[in-house]
Fold this sequence. Notes:
Two copies of one chain form a homodimer.
Chain A: H1 12-18, H2 23-36, H3 42-52, H4 59-71, H5 76-99, E1 104-105, E2 108-109, H6 111-114, H7 117-135, H8 142-163, H9 172-196, H10 202-229, H11 232-235, H12 241-244, H13 250-258, H14 261-273, H15 277-287, H16 290-308, H17 316-330
Antiparallel strand pairs in A: 1-2
Helix pairs in contact in A: 2-5, 4-5, 4-9, 4-17, 5-7, 5-9, 8-9, 9-10, 10-16, 10-17, 13-16, 14-15, 16-17
Amino acid sequence: MSQVVNGTDVSPDxxxxxxxxxxxxxxxxxxxxxxxxxxxxxxxDEMVRYGCLLGGKRLxxxxxxxxxxxxGVITADHxxxxxxxxxxxxxxxxxxxxxxxxxxxxxxxxxNARWDNEASVLLGDYLFTHSFYLASxxxxxxxxxxxxxxxxxxxxxxxxxxxxCNNFELGEEEYLEIxxxxxxxxxxxxxxxxxxxxxxxxxxxxxxxEYGRNLGIAFQIIDDLLDVAGxxxxxxxxxxxxxxxxKPTLPLLHVLSCLKGTERTEFVNALVEGSNxxxxxxxxxxxxxxxxxxxxKANVYASRAVSALADLSDNEATRIxxxxxxxVIHRSH
Amino acid sequence: MSQVVNGTDVSPDxxxxxxxxxxxxxxxxxxxxxxxxxxxxxxxDEMVRYGCLLGGKRLxxxxxxxxxxxxGVITADHxxxxxxxxxxxxxxxxxxxxxxxxxxxxxxxxxNARWDNEASVLLGDYLFTHSFYLASxxxxxxxxxxxxxxxxxxxxxxxxxxxxCNNFELGEEEYLEIxxxxxxxxxxxxxxxxxxxxxxxxxxxxxxxEYGRNLGIAFQIIDDLLDVAGxxxxxxxxxxxxxxxxKPTLPLLHVLSCLKGTERTEFVNALVEGSNxxxxxxxxxxxxxxxxxxxxKANVYASRAVSALADLSDNEATRIxxxxxxxVIHRSH
Lengths: 333, 333
């Protein structure tokens, strides 16, 4: 299995450079997104335009377009679908920020902070339904079916996660299942659509889906790590909400697995009472080298993503797809 | 234009009797709904099953199936789509109850009361995405496109409504536009799908869509009337939330249009302060005969629904469709 972690840190500019081979098409899909997210009613228009700014990395459309390019040519269908997956991602962000009581996202006020929770519920719904409509403008039902299924699995994962808050006995396996559902399924879906609409063989559609799935798991492990150990000003969004919500993510599960007896009980009590859980957590993260543990785990999935593409013929887009897992692991935002 | 209001009151049993010609098919679509809304994870399963119980009247699937039967034969596609429109309606109910801080629906705890707002946001999303997936299992993209568009218009209407809370200058025309979007578009969609998948001509698809649209507007006017003038124990859900949220619905707009000077100012202040707005409203409703005004307005749309079907050949299902507007107006629940 290939190793992708080499210890260097990567910046947002690095990501921009990675997207260079699909720069034109990413801009085109962005234009579709912005054209679609207009509304004749000023109050609605204001909200959907704002929501549209909240996504940042454009990872899902990039995965879709890079997959298409790796296999051949990016078509008009790909551009539409790239806008669709980003719109779905934005819908989940808008609703996630309600769940997390987050006030900051990509250095901007979240929708719930700018308006309120009610308006954010509806804005997320608006984005979800519009993305489904946009997917249905394609000729075949494949995109609708794939997207409908993947987004349903995303919601299932989110529901499982919210219902497992407070459950400090959650096993690592179940944590991994949950993040696979809530994050990796949409990444897998993006790659799957990229491949399918490039007329790839069934085998290659599965290969790319597997790539996206593993990349998504690695991505979410790092996201969960950043939430407890990241720097709010560089990440650009509200952090620490996982601990506040007593969400059993990997860093917490690792710390808990290292603690025994009174120390464990006291830590759990601190988390439940919401007193100084975050401070104690930081010291434990260091003591048990939980950061390294999480990075290593993320690296397993990043390496699997790379391995999935092992048989692929070399081209510019393929090379970027092989580099993306490294970015995902070393990002600080 | 036909008159549908005759002053008699109707009960839930009356509605059941109206559905008699599609009894078997309504049960079959209910079975699809319940089969689809199972999940292998206990915590998710518990929530989706519960959500499934919250719908009551099954108006949208009934409209779809009655339309199909009026035009010919109910097919397997109709049964699936009937489950889809009910699932979408349930998703909107789950999210509406968050917006309204409602605790009671169909004599049961709402999801937000039983769990919390966060879980309800996700449950609504789960239902939305599952309904889109289910729609995509049909052969053509027509259902996905029609449903995607209609649900997006529903969200647009809800967003316009929430952004118009506090706006006591809202015109009746804009109120009607909003309820057409948030309620009537899904009723129109149900009828449209019923007709299209019965291989109806384009003309008939439009005729039935027009029927559903007008029926939906009448339905929502009555819903808004019940919220300020209904009896919570017979309606079976939290009432009075529109006034609390300062939502400019027809009864309120009518009262406001009758008030001038100090009286108007004092009433608006009472609403804004949330003091005794509901009590004052009740006395004004009586003084200005606002109930009669709303019923008359609803009757205009109910009559239009009946007129839309004027050229239809007579059969059992058609006769029920012609009676439904009357039920919608006279319901007390």
